[in-house]
Amino acid sequence: MINNDIKSIKEFTNKIHGWLTDREGEFLYKIAKKCSGQGVIVEIGSWKGKSTIWLGKGSIAGNNVKVYAIDPHTGSSEHKKSGKGVWTFEKFKENIKDAGVNDVIISIVETSEKAVKEWNIPVEFIFIDGAHEIEFVEKDFLLWFPHIIDGGIIAIHDTTSCFRYLLPGWPGPKKVAERFIFKSRNFKDVGLIDTITYGTKCKENSLKDKIKIKCVRFKKYVPDFIHLLLRNESKIPRPIKSIGKVLLKLI
Length: 251
Fold this sequence. Notes:
By secondary structure, this protein is α/β, with parallel strands linked by helices. The chain has helices at residues 2-13, 22-34, 50-61, 77-82, 89-99, 112-117, 134-144, 171-182, 207-231, 238-250; strands at residues 40-44, 67-70, 105-108, 123-128, 148-156, 187-193, 196-201. The chain has ten helices and seven strands.
C-alpha cells in the first residue's frame, strides 16, 4: 500500500517543476508520516509545491499533522537580479489542490524571517529549502531552531553533490550544515539523502553519536570530491578516474 502511494506521488510530482529528487521526496514523506503531532511540520521554500506535496501526503498517511508552507512566492535572488517578475503562488495552490493535500497544508506567503516573528507553535519537523545564500540559510536555521522540539528533525536541502541527478550542491547550505549540524552538540542520528542533510535535535549528543556523525561527515565529502574530479576530468590520470567511478557506484 505504501509503495503504491509513493509510486503515485512520484508520477504526480515528476510533472511539477522543482529540484527535489525522488529519494528526497520519499524521505520527506516518511518523516512527515512519522510525525506524532507534538509539533507541526514547517517547510521553508515551497516554489510550486513539489516538496510540499510529499510532506502533505506523508502527513495524511500518518497523523494529519499540519504542514506550514512558507514562501513569498516571488522567486529566488537570481530571479530578482534579472529584473523578471516571478509569482508562483497560483501554480502552487493549483498543484496542492490537484494533489489532494489541501486539508493539511497551511500556506504562509511571507519570507521565513517575517513568518517566524509571530510564531508560537512547536515544530516537530522542518525542511529548509529557501534562499541558498549563506546569510539566508544561516538566518533560517538560527531563527527556527529554538522552535524545534527535542526529538524533532531538521533537514536542509542542497548541502552536498548528487550524481544521480547531476546536482552539485550549494555553498550556503553546505556551510550551514557543516557548522550547525555536523559540528553541533545538539544533533544525533545525522544522515544524508542525496543532497539533504538531516539530524534529530537533542540537548547534548553522546560520544557514540559523535563518532557516527564523523562517519556521515566523511561520506558527505565523497560526492563533493568526485564532483571536483569530474569537473577537471581531462586533467585526471586514468587510474584515479576509474577509482572515482567505482566510488560513485557505491554512494
